[in-house]
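Researcher: Here's my situation. A collaborator sent me these components and asked whether they could plausibly form a single complex. I don't have experimental data yet, so a predicted model of the whole assembly would be a useful starting point for our discussion.
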Amino acid sequence: MIPFLVTTGMAFLLYLILTAGSGSIGFWSLSELAMGAVLAMITGLVTRKFLCRSESYRLLSPIRLLLLLVYVPVPFFIELMKANLDVAYRVITLNIRPGIIRVHSGLKTDLGIFMLANSITLTPGTLSVGIDEETNDLFIHTINIAEGDEKKEIIESTELFRLVNLPAWIRRIAE
Amino acid sequence: MTVVEILIYTCLVIGVVFNSLGVLGLLRFPDLYTRMHATTKATTFGSIFTSLAVVVYGLSMFFSQNASQYLNLAIHAFLAAAFLAFTNAVSAHAIARAAHKSGIKPMLAVVDRLEEAKL
């Protein structure tokens, strides 16, 4: 029952966002609201087992959602900007020193690993290539490894981000 | 020019510059992995800014003319940017992982821990 309600609610919310500005009840017309409710219920029935496989609803807590909404435009965007200036500099100068390093994530849940891997792919000159599923270590392709870092067996994930501590944010949101 | 127009043009210029840098990186870098850096980061950032220009345009038209289809336009462009960022990261990971599994080694690499781990 809970998976059905969660997926239906999410699908309905997405439908409302996509059709905002269609009428006069709030921003929506009556026909869009009715159609959205029916479609959301069908979506909930079909996808509830697939989308709620892990049976954990941590992200439904309002504090975590609020943190996620702050995380994307502020700390994440700062790192994204820095990463892009860095890549722009390397495209022009071709000053690269690539390699694949092993990074200790320190996260336990699938959602946390997923968010960290995606954040790493979009930020500072790094690209997640693989994952060790037993220890949750990530294998990161780095475009410019600092002198001496290639000799270290394992690197802490916090060392990848110089400006903001993204792993700590992700731990607060996802775990 | 109004403030809104300046904002739109700034977003467009940033977006186009970073998208072109992404293309340049695709041509200049030596191997698949370094090319993925250019195509994932630079094009995501560039496309976010071009979408942001559409969002700003839509919102300004919505508030000046109070026509609801512009609100719709702004929201759709914003959602497109959000999903682009998500799917780009996931697909970049998928391509890099598939490449490494099928035996493409990173060129010029000083270290390859994934090869040593033998997963």
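Model: Some features of this prediction you could bring to your collaborator: Chain B has one domain: 3-117. The two ends of chain B are 58 Å apart (CA to CA).
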